[in-house]
Amino acid sequence: MGFPYKSYHLDYDAAAKKSFFLLTAALAAIRIHNRESDHPSKALTQFVSLGGPGYDRRNGLDEDTLMLRFWFWMLALALMTTQAQTPTPPETLTRAIEALNAQLGTRYLSADFSAITWTEMQFSDSSLGCPQPGLMYLQVITPGYQFTLTVDGKSYDVRTNRQGTTAVVCGAPALGNPNTINPSTVTRLIDAGQLGIAEPLIGNLAWAGQTLILARDPNGILLYPTGTETTLPEVIAPETAIRVLATFTDEQDRVYLAFGTTDGTISYQLITPVSEKPISWQTEQPIHVLALGTNLIASGTSSGVQLWDPTTGDLLGEIPTPFEVTALALSEQAGELSLAIGLITGAIERYQVTFEPEITIEALEPLEGHEQAISDLAFALDGAILVSGSSDGTARVWDLLGFISPVVLSTPENTPMNQIAINYAGDLLLLGDDSGQIHVWSLIAPSDPQLIQTFPAHGVAIVGLAFAPDDTLIVSGGSDGIIRLWGLGASVEQGAITR
Predict the structure, then answer these.
(1) DSSP secondary-structure letter at 321?
(2) Is residue 475 scored above 80 in pLDDT?
(3) pLDDT in tens, 318-377
(4) Which of 85, 119, 138 is where one domain is finished?
(5) Looking at the whole model, is its pTM more than 0.85?
(6) Is residue 348 part of a domain?
(7) How confident is the model at residue 477 (pLDDT cuts 50, 70, 90)?
(8) Tell me, what's the pLDDT at 110?
(9) Can you say how many angstroms the Cα of residue 194 is from the centroid of all Cα atoms in its chain?
(10) Which residue has the higher pLDDT, 154 or 77?
(11) How many domains does the chain divide into?
(12) Hey, is 180 helix, strand or coil?
């Protein structure tokens, strides 16, 4: 467990009640004084001056004036004393709040808590007194803090080490639903099967609903059903070669597919079940990347981004860019759409798109830091976190709410990061690189991601990476056309595709 040696307490409710009581008493006394004074408009000024009403230079202050002045100076003294005695929380309080927000899926600030208690601790090992199953810890005395954070009538036990590099919410339930991965228990990824489609993969792959979706060269989109014994996929075969694809799942779990071909055609269709014929329209430039939302398709080209109505093929708007677009990501929250655009230079442009009463496109502050082309972008489900991967061998975690600074993720080899996947709960990040390795990171605390595991998934570049919808499996695709399924812990057998 650990040994406490100093405790502190901030009770904002109690402090507020104390100040309110003293202030009310003082104001009541002053009101009485105003009512009885011959000059009410001057009462307060006279009250705090040396020669107020009732002052007699021969006999000194009368009893009423003395009492009023007593209340006034008691109020001032109480407020100054309360402020002087309020302890300053350690810097790791911010880290503790971040960990609690990640656990609860909230965005609490320090001012939202009605009481904050912390105790300086000497924990007996690096688990901070909250060991997680399947993990090993350094058996050394670890200085740190135990916080009790009270908000909305509930108290939470959150612990950090002294440096703030580790934070854990003790006694909290696992994140998300029962099928959601808890990164603290992830110790290995196991190969649960593979598919060989002979031809190289084109663009990204996706796992939407009960369908694994991937595009192959020279042309054709394969729709593999999962959770059944069937291994023969349905095939969508346009007349020209497919270059990119994107998927979107709506609130009724209907899956929509958009894909672009080498001649600049964009097609859109419902795939669960497969509709008879896609809606298609011709664009003026080859499509490099696609992103799909509820009622919008974004296509990236060498000179900008076009926004399309997927049901009609009408052009809704254009965003010119100074350089080639290499990655796109969309996030929809409360009727607004956030669009991230990755450029070949390493810059990331951001826009907010609204549709009522008419479509408007507002430029947001760009994100800078990468030195080479952006290869992939991914939003966490709530839209507050964006992860970028680059050919410069790094990935970056961006907090779009501005609470934390960007965090750089890298490997010793600085291998280009090709693919990004974030699970539904938003607490697990996958990075697929050019050498065929997958890097698994915990995002429980976005300000301090922890590398859980790196393993060789393919002998060639990873060109596709996705979580299964229930977060129990991972699918990865290599440039050689091999698709591998990876199970986490006890979920290895669930949903595996067999040949």
Answers:
(1) -
(2) yes
(3) 999 999 999 999 998 877 899 999 999 999 999 999 887 788 999 999 999 999 999 999
(4) 85
(5) no
(6) yes
(7) confident
(8) 85
(9) 31
(10) 154
(11) 3
(12) coil
For β-strands 385-390 and 374-379, DSSP reports them as: antiparallel
Mean pLDDT of the chain: 75
d(Cα 185, Cα 203) in Å, to the nearest integer? 32
99: its two tokens: 């960990």
Q: Is 274 helix (H, G, I), strand (E, B) or coil?
A: strand
pLDDT in the model for residue 14: 52
Q: How many CB atoms lie within 10 A of CB 65?
A: 18
If asked whether residues 200 and 114 sit together in one domain, one would say no
> Are 187 and 52 part of one and the same domain?
no
Tokens of 361: 């496109």
Higher pLDDT among residues 431 and 426, named by residue: 431
DSSP string, 56-95: ETTTEE-HHHHHHHHHHHHHHHHHHHHHHHPPPPPTHHHH
Rounded Cα distance between 75 and 69, Å, is 10
Tokens representing 169 are 């919410």
Q: Label residue 198 by pLDDT band (50, 70, 90).
A: very low
For residue 347, being part of any structural domain is answered with: yes
Question: In the prediction, which pLDDT does 323 show?
Answer: 94
Give bridge partners of residue 397 from the DSSP assignment: 387, 407
Give the bridge partners for 202, in sequence order: 215
Q: Do the Cβ atoms of 430 and 418 come closer than 8 Å?
A: no
From 116, 148, 170, the end of a domain falls on 170
Grouping H, G, I as helix, E, B as strand and the rest as coil, residue 488 is strand
Which of 386, 394, 444, 449 minimizes the C-alpha distance to 416?
Answer: 394
Which of these, 292, 293, 259, lies nearest to 278 by C-alpha position? Answer: 259
Q: What percent of the chain lies above the pLDDT cut of 90?
A: 25
Specify if 52 maps to a domain: yes
| DSSP conformation letters of 200-259 | PEEEEEEEETTEEEEEESSS-EEEEE-SSS--PPEEE--SS-EEEEEEEE-TT--EEEEE
Query: Does a structural domain hold residue 354?
Result: yes
* Residues linked to residue 331 through DSSP beta bridges, in sequence order: 338
Structural domain including 44 reads 13-85
